[in-house]
Amino acid sequence: MSAISTPPLAVVEENLPNARNSRRTTKIRGVRAGFWVYLGLGVVIVSAIFPYYWSFLIGSGDATTINDPNMSWLPGGNFIANALSVVNDPAVNFWLALWNSIFSSTVIAASVVIFSTLAGWAFAKLRFPGGKWLLAFVVATMAVPMQLGVVPLYLLFSDLGWTGQIGAIIIPALTSAFGVFWMTQYLSQTVPDELIEAARVDGASMIRTFWTVGVTAARPAAAMLFLFTFVGAWNQFFWPFIVLDRQSPTLPVALSLLQSNYFVDYSVVLAGVLLATIPLLILFAFAGKQLVSGIMAGAVKG
């Protein structure tokens, strides 16, 4: 009888982790979402889409649609006419308001990302006296309501002659305490100190280290901060309503003029609301995939 040959112990030990990893991968790939997961996701999706559908349903009808007890759940055929009423309304000044919203939101979001990344890098990776107390003070300013500073801020811009100008809503929002805190936490957890020390040993200056290491690592968090800041600046109503006039409004302020009459046609109002939402949907459609891929890349690297 021929003896059965057995593999050496070293070969078995070498292949054992691979076999375990393959079985673990097979188990992970074999996990499927259950019924309750799909049900929960369906409820979330319907809850998110329903307000838009309701706005489109009313916006595609006429002035009597919102008060009709027998209203059909199928859209009507007046949405284009109602949208043209918003666009062509001289009191709204739609195209100027759209440009003001796009310009101001883009400048504010870009400025917040730049200054927050610089400040976050300083708080996270630089050591200077009073750094922790200064960061605590910046975070504490988030607890102060914006309404408390409206009166002195308006008096300041009035003395400077900037009321009614688009710069009056851009300058106060160039920095963000939340953005500084967000980038500080992200950079402190993502960038190891050894990487910075290696760059300094290689002769890189602090600016060079920040540009090659910090900016590269901060891209996922910066993309999220830009997106959220853009949406927040786009939807801002209180301060633009106070400091801007009707000749140069932002889009939310311009759309509020549709409700200034004695009779409010909600089909026209909701058609205008949907028009103001379209640029945000386009932004999420183009930036959503890159945003998610950037977040996953940052998570893997971290």
Quick structural overview:
With 302 residues, this protein is mainly alpha-helical. It contains 13 helices and no strands. The radius of gyration is 27 Å and the shape is globular.
In words, what does this structure look like?
There is one protein chain. The protein is mainly α. The chain contains 13 helices and no strands. It is globular, with a radius of gyration of 27 Å. 71% of the residues lie in helices and 0% in strands. It is found in: Cell membrane. Residues 98-287 form the ABC transmembrane type-1 domain.
Q: What's the main sheet like? A: none
Poorly predicted residue ranges: 1-14, 19-28
The counted number of beta strands is 0
Q: Considering DSSP H and I runs of 4 or more, what fraction of the residues is helical?
A: over 70%
Mean pLDDT: 82
Helix and strand element order: HHHHHHHHHHHHH
Instruction: For the record, give the distance between the C-alpha atoms at the N and C termini, rounded to a whole number.
Output: 58 Å
Query: What is the count of helical runs?
Result: 13
Structural class: mainly alpha
Q: What spatial form do the alpha-carbon principal axes imply?
A: globular
As a percent range, the share of strand residues is under 5%
Radius of gyration: 27 Å
